[in-house]
Model the fold of this input.
Amino acid sequence: MTNFVKKSEIKNNWYLIDGNNAVVGRLATIIAKIIRGKHKTTYTPHMDNGDFVIVKNIENIKFTGKKFEEKKYYRHTGHPGGIKVSTPSKLHDKKPGEVLKLAVKRMLPGGPLAKKQLLKLKMYSGNAHPHESQKLTTLELSKLNLKNISRN
Done:
């Protein structure tokens, strides 16, 4: 018989990640795994068992290759002929964290649970953030894998 974690047993931790020169896709996979709770032994697919993730310096995240200029994001307004195309550079100019948020959102399963889990992602430009009082665990991306940091 499988033992599932109960709501009263869930303990959320806080992680701090520096997004300086981080590659977007690799950073998004790490964040998605943490906010879903897949890194814990008590992972339960139908429960919100994940941890909070704070990403600072999101204005300095990078894409590899020419993706920053040539990749396309499509969305539809809902009206006939209402398809809109955008690139990561345009999105990054309007809202610096939107590219990372979209990448993480698309790595989560669809539904109400994913929306709740996405709220555990906090992104800030610069080094300052209002979560100093939490017990933050710092994750260093370059120590996880050297490919996580862009060289250019």
Remarks:
- The beta strands are 14-18, 52-56, 73-76, 83-86, 121-124, 136-139.
- The two ends are 51 Å apart (CA to CA).
- Helices lie at 24-36, 67-70, 88-94, 98-107, 112-118, 141-144.
